[in-house]
Amino acid sequence: MIIAEQKQVPMDEAEYKSNRQHKDGVFKLLFSKPEILRELYSAVEGVELPQDKAIDINTISGVLVKGMKNDISFTIDNRLIVMVEHQSTIGANLPLKLFKYIEKVYDKIIDYRKVHIRPLIKIPKPEFIVLYNGKDPFPENRTLKLSDAFMEREDLSGDKDRLTLELAVRVYNINHGQNKEIQEKCVALNGYSFFIEKIREYQRSGITLEKAVEAAVKYCIGNNILKEFLREHGSEVISMMVNEYTTEDFVEAIIESEREEAHAQGHAKGHAQGHVEGRVEVARNALAEGYSTETIQRITGLDIETIKNL
User: Fold this and answer.
1) Cβ burial, residue 132 (10 Å; 0-12/13-18/19+)
2) pLDDT tens by residue, 72-109
């Protein structure tokens, strides 16, 4: 989700829980067609994906495990699984998160009853792509690895490079003006980045979030940017963007308030101990409100297993 530059007034609890049921966002809606995914993949990989290579979308559309769903997953020619996530914040645990996701995708496409037979079962090779358009500074691209989280990197022989498991996630900054070569090759991605930047520009002028989104939609249609998409889904896009911005603001406002209270309590218990206990209390309260484990992890800094065991 995108964090609004100017904070909105938080919704009340009932309104927030209603909005939280809205599972899909503008990014997911825009990239929900095989032909657009073909263009996106070709641009990111710097290749020309032939038209005869079939693209089958197998996105995890519901919450399979508490707090778990993904943006886009598709298979190319039954040979390659590509998982694409859209993020406004980049957490160090992204590889672990996607490790859990790919397991669920394989569950959807593999008949595990056959794993006991002698012949080798061929499975599609996975690739993991994250597209970042948050407001914090971030390089044009970065690779995050699951092995960075391993408690012990070297085996008994002292070899630090021999890994039995790895998962690499390529993160690309898609803010307007970043990774120009990729955006020039993918019209939809370039249009989406421009659209988000236009919303932020209108917000900086002091108008409300909803007015900023409406103005950005009108501007983009008038200037042939995502024109057909916005004409077809204009009102839906406005609703989605307002929900995405406002819901994220609500989460930040509530958790920040609880974090400040926990920090104050920490002084009475001893700074170090109180800080840890305060973060745990924030996480416990956020879980009770139904926030995802990933959101809680990002805000509190606690690891996913600790949060799940609260």
Assistant:
1) buried
2) 999 999 888 999 988 888 888 889 989 988 988 888 88
